[in-house]
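Course assignment 3, question 2. Fill in each field.
Student: A.L.
Task: Predict the tertiary structure for the chain below.
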Amino acid sequence: MSTPNLDWSQSAHSYQTALALAKASRAAYCHDDYLPDQWATEYNFKMEGRPFDKAGMYGFAATKEDTIVFAFRGTDRGGDWLVNVDMGHKDVRGIPGKVHQGFWDDGLNPLLDELFAALQNRDYRRIWITGHSLGGAIAVLFQASLIFQKGRMVTGVYTFGQPRVGDAIFRDRLDEHSAGQYHRYVNHNDVVPLVPPHLNRYRHAGSPVRFDRNGDPQFQDGITSRIRGVFDHLEERLDSLAQRQDRESLNDMLERIRQKPTEGVREHAITEYIEAIEKVIGRAR
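Answer field:
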């Protein structure tokens, strides 16, 4: 599949942009078969400084003219699950509502100074943020930090298999400031978007694109508030199915998920997201 010449000024949903950023999310894992500098070369970007690597959190930035892309690594090591299971809500100065304490304190916050420093190197007009799994949660919180704490516009955010990061107030305010810019991908029965539980007052923001069993997208950008209600209700029902009747701790549930390669875990892999997007693009040709 040839690499398209993408228009990085356009926030509207694009499967080609989604593919590029899904690949960036894959590169953030730094596996030998695909590294950040390989992604940068493929899409005609240049690496911006050194990767961000602190307290077990990892990301990189790449630039092209007045555009910068931030990509964050997802759950790749056992310790990352400890960040996921810290479900407490947290008030963060300047950010509306409450956010996931673990994702903020142990996820984004250790990287913030380096992330802001990267933005000071040049007057970037276009800021793109992406991430898979835990990296998607960090991406959304970084988006919120830029919007509400720094007053910076974010051109686009794409996340893949992202867990929930904030309460209903956070969701509503973020959606007000990022309409048509924040696209959240869910691959069929991927289990990670079901945590933290809906019943713990966590809600998803953004415009969802969910692939069904056949790889067809069910929800796309521009979703109406009525469809959003249906989607939230569906996720609430899936939450009930995902949680054990014996009320096992979330830590135990996540460890069980990590150790047992069920369909929902397999479909969480970033390679599965890339394959699903490539299929949609191929069908359109």
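Instructor remarks: Strands lie at 46-47, 52-54, 57-64, 67-72, 89-90, 99-100, 126-132, 156-160, 182-187, 207-211. The two ends are 11 Å apart (CA to CA).
Grade: pending
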